[in-house]
Write a structure and sequence with these properties.
Layout: E1 2-7, E2 13-17, H1 28-33, E3 38-43, H2 57-71, E4 77-82, H3 84-95, E5 102-106, H4 114-127, H5 134-143, H6 148-160, H7 163-175, E6 188-194, H8 199-211, E7 215-220, H9 227-230, H10 232-245, E8 252-254
Parallel strand pairs: 2-3, 2-4, 4-5, 5-6, 6-7
Antiparallel strand pairs: 1-3, 7-8
Helix pairs in contact: 2-3, 4-7, 5-6
Length: about 260
């Protein structure tokens, strides 16, 4: 798996896993802020040549666990995931929780939608030509809080993806459920969801918190899908405060 490293290689490791439809660039503001940590940013999909329809959340989780084993060297390990990346983080702490000290799960869907799964392929085939349409891309980018600074990168990334790979990624995303061993994970886990997100996303956050006694959860006020891009200053601050002091960010606590 391709990845980039930033910061101080001798300090605790922060693994930042991007969501679907975006790339490692979504964490630019985080790697700048956490320059006194060892930040590792993987690319789940690099370019058209590497796009295959074999994508799987479990496979990504295993590769990233191997990367942690290679890079951590007995250091503290913090995993931060958004959306698809959050699902991968959940899979990681379920497979090898002993490798991870802290996990921040942002906007992870864990409630499958059988209807959505059934219609993914025909709907994506129908709408796929729109991916290369800049006006459509701007609408999609807006829902993820991708601003003008990153739009061109977002557009280039989304334009390169192959149809079969996009379908596979969405199928993995829409069918993901909480792994059985997630309940056994002993690391500290913070689950966040935006107040403006869809109800299934909020229900997913509740399920996660109730599935592991080490989970804490919070609904972030006035935020949709993508807090780290929507308000990077707020995101960076609450991540740092939670890592250092276990302080829960402002918002409605999930019980």
């Amino acid at each position: 798996m391709h990845y980039k490293e930033y910061g101080d290689l001798h300090k605790p490791l922060i693994l930042l896993i991007h969501g679907g439809g975006v790339g490692g660039w979504m964490w630019d503001k985080q790697v700048q802020y956490f320059s006194d940590y060892h930040c590792v940013v993987p690319e789940l999909i690099v370019n058209e040549a590497n796009n295959t329809s074999n994508f799987s959340i479990e496979d990504c989780a295993k590769k990233l666990l191997s990367l942690i084993e290679e890079k951590a060297k007995n250091k503290r390990v913090i995993v931060v995931g958004f959306s698809l990346g959050a699902q991968i983080a959940i899979q990681m702490v379920s497979l090898k929780p002993q490798l991870i000290d802290d996990a921040i799960i942002n906007s992870a869907l864990v409630i499958p939608s059988p209807i959505a799964e059934k219609w993914i392929r025909p709907l994506i085939k129908l709408s796929f030509p729109l991916i290369k349409n800049k006006s459509f891309a701007k609408l999609q980018a807006k829902t993820l809080y991708v601003d003008q600074e990153y739009f061109e990168q977002y557009y280039q990334d989304s334009s390169k993806i192959k149809l079969d790979n996009l379908i596979k990624i969405l199928q993995e995303n829409m069918s993901f459920t909480i792994p059985y061993d997630f309940s056994k994970a002993k690391c500290n886990i913070l689950v966040t969801v935006g107040e403006k997100e869809k109800s299934n996303m909020k229900k997913s956050a509740i399920q996660l918190v109730n599935s592991n006694s080490n989970c804490q959860g919070v609904v972030l006020s006035n935020i949709g899908h993508g807090v780290s891009l929507a308000n990077p200053e707020f995101f960076n601050r609450f991540v740092e405060e939670w890592i250092k002091d276990g302080k829960i960010p402002d918002g409605e606590v999930i019980n």
